[in-house]
Amino acid sequence: MPSQPDKPVTLAFDIGGTGVKSMLLDYKGRPLSERERIETPRPATTEAVIAVMDGMAQKAKEKGFDRISVGFPGVVKRGATLTAHNLHVSWIGFELEKVLARKWRKPVRVMNDAAVQGFGAIHGRGVELVITLGTGFGSSLYSNGRLTPGLELAHHPWRKTKTYEDDLGKTGLAKHGRKRWNKLIEKAIVQLESLFNFDHLYIGGGNATKINFALPDNVTRIPNEDGLLGGVMLWKEQ
How confident is the model over 6-41, as pLDDT tens digits? Predict the structure, then answer.
């Protein structure tokens, strides 16, 4: 695929606690390849996960890409990963953006995975909140399409001594069972609306499909692919 400076191709990654996903996107964020998924290695060290990503990048070179976007499950600042509760401690303080840029000799941008997924889902009007129900609990908040940086609801206490991630992540689902977990999701939606007064809430992540109650009109379930499709927006956020 010949490179066009005004129409760059993005290789988007979504690093998760259970899977590493990738997809090629055109300059408008439309898929140019099938979504590829490989199980997240255990232990999920920086070296092991980057090795998986490198294999995906080598495969993507056959079609060609101009830049890389990465969604990471933790707090990201200036391209460095500051927390990684569902991966390995080697990610804490890791300069992921710089390491990948040197490795692949391409421009790289890294952002929290829920923020990237949100960019693939939001409409850019009013207050929009995104939560992801996967291995952990992701969150991102937008005002008229602009990301509010630094939001991390996962480890905030919300029910006695329990955090959102304790109750609503993968561990909480296994502990409570699907029926009780759904009741807690309903309760969380009400509480999050009282807290943020959102115009719309989007729910993504692998376990969003396990929601079995009717969602309010201002709440929408979104597909996992949005975690990749939002990758182009990282290049519009300055």
Answer: 799 999 999 999 999 999 999 999 999 999 999 999
Q: Which domains does the chain have, with CATH numbers?
A: 10-113 (3.30.420.40), 122-221 (3.30.420.40)
Q: Which two tokens stand for residue 45?
A: 């060290």
Distances (CA, A) of 34 to 10, 31, 59, 140, 169: 14, 7, 12, 26, 27
For 118, the token pair is: 């949100």
> Rounded to an integer, what distance in angstroms lies between the CA atom of residue 82 and that of residue 72?
10
The CA distance from 109 to 67, in Å, is 8
User: Alpha helices of the chain — where are they, by DSSP H?
Assistant: 46-60, 96-104, 113-119, 164-168, 170-196, 226-229
Q: Is the peptide bond before 43 cis (omega within 30 degrees of 0)?
A: yes
